[in-house]
Design brief:
Elements lengths: L7 H12 L12 E9 L5 E10 L5 E10 L9 H13 L7 E4 L12 H9 L3 E5 L17 E6 L2 E7 L8 E7 L3 H10 L8 H10 L6
């Protein structure tokens, strides 16, 4: 879709172009869900990228793929997709096309409206959800301590997602649509994939793989 050999300034300018291509929509019929995550070794600069394909609604792993390598793009706040998508691309090309992708990162809840989940959605043409552990941008009221409590996440007064208490008394997660989904549909897709943990099952298992742990 574009070159990955970009400076930080060029990458930020490109995000403005990509943001105009993002669309909303409703969840399709979901039979498989893909979780994506990338971890890094700070001392060496190497990465470990992992994707896990799960059946729905059982959330049983169908397949998993992992690769290691050296990072080519530096860590720059707001430009995570240019650091993480190149490691993930060879894995995404191996996976049978899922019905839904959930990414450990943000979607439209991003300073330029196109976070990691949105960027992956544009590349794959598939519905994507960003499910992040921390806020990047936006205003919200802290949800109550009950599991399932949620509050809207807004950016400059516009809906950008939800803050979800996925597990009782745990820190909330930040859910935003990546591509081809509305905020409410992104929230619904995330809740559908919860199995008693803080993180939805696709990204929880992908996170385990990036740390060299078994998928279970």
């Amino acid at each position: 879709m574009h070159s990955w050999d970009l400076s930080s300034r060029e990458a930020a300018a490109l995000q403005g172009v990509l943001a105009a291509r993002i669309r909303g929509g409703s969840l399709p019929r979901v039979r498989t869900v893909l979780g994506c995550d990338v971890s890094y070794c700070r001392s060496s600069g190497s990465f470990r990228a992992s994707v896990v394909l799960l059946s729905f609604p059982t959330m049983e792993p169908v397949g998993s793929w992992t690769r290691k390598g050296e990072t080519a793009f530096p860590y720059v706040p707001g430009l995570l997709s240019f650091r993480e998508i190149p490691p993930l691309l060879p894995l995404l090309e191996k996976v049978p096309a899922p019905d839904l992708i959930i990414v450990d990162g943000h979607g439209i809840a991003h300073p330029r409206g196109v976070g990691l989940a949105s960027h992956i959605g544009l590349i794959t043409g598939l519905p994507t959800i960003g499910c992040a552990k921390r806020r990047l941008i936006g205003e919200y009221t802290d949800p109550s301590a009950e599991a399932g409590a949620r509050e809207p996440l807004t950016v400059s007064g516009h809906p950008a997602g939800f803050v979800l208490r996925s597990k009782r008394s745990c820190r909330p997660i930040f859910v935003s649509p990546g591509h081809l989904l509305d905020p409410e549909e992104a929230l619904r897709g995330t809740v559908m994939c919860l199995r008693g943990y803080r993180l939805p099952e696709p990204t929880r298992l992908a996170d385990r793989l990036t740390r060299g742990l078994p998928v279970k």
